[in-house]
Amino acid sequence: MREFDVDAPAAERWGEGLVAVEQGEPIHLDVRLESVHEGILVTGEAETIYRGICGRCLTDIAQPVEVEFQELFGYPGEEATDFELQDDHVDTGPLVRDTIVLSLPFQPVCQPDCPGLDPNTGERLTSEAAQEPREPVDPRWASLKTFTNDDDAVATRHDAETKEES
Ligand SMILES: [Zn+2]
């Protein structure tokens, strides 16, 4: 039996959803290799960070992710296993990648009770604003509205306000 403690960067971007482990992100591996009759039994833990955006409010997020795995790497040409030893080497890359990608959330959130965006203004809600959706703008930020040069955004906001009044 042998044990390894390894840090290695992700060789490519892992994940296709709102969050992913970026290429080059450090992956910390704790791996135990055991010789068994059919091959090498690989047991371990991997730790890294996934990055992306909150599925509700679109804020950038970075969260730690930790996974455990155990897989038999069979001797080539013997029993059918998902992974094979190659030249007496265990390539844990694909195993770690698959385990981490499967553990990434489909609906990542910046915090468990993230209230998301205001359906009228598109602005990020705070927990208090979610209960009072009519007052989404912090007065300290109100003057920033005059700096917008996005005519569409202004028109949309005006339409929303008109609808509320009628
Ligand atoms: Zn959020």
UniProtKB/TrEMBL annotation:
InterPro entries: YceD
Region (Disordered): 113-166
Compositionally biased spans, kind Basic and acidic residues: 154-166
Name of the molecule in the record: DUF177 domain-containing protein
